[in-house]
Amino acid sequence: MTETRLIRAGYWRDHPEHTSMNISEPRELEEIDRRLHMLEKKKQQLLLALPEIPATTNRGIALKLDVLAKVINPDENQTTHDLAMSIRRNLALPNF
Question: pTM here?
Fold first, then answer.
């Protein structure tokens, strides 16, 4: 409601930065965006370390494949994603 009044008064158009910082929603969304960016950086650091961590059990291999399947976007590389998921399912078989 506050935004609507400001827009109608023409204030929002003339002072977008000042006005948006006085409303909690943009501040909250900017904080979420900042935190998501930090999490993405942390994810990249962890992914860089993952190849150096040995997987010495079926469970360890399965967990690495889980990570691989999560970082491979099926929309961008369906074949590789499907391969990782297939290997993961094979490891879960009782005879393995």
Answer: 0.59
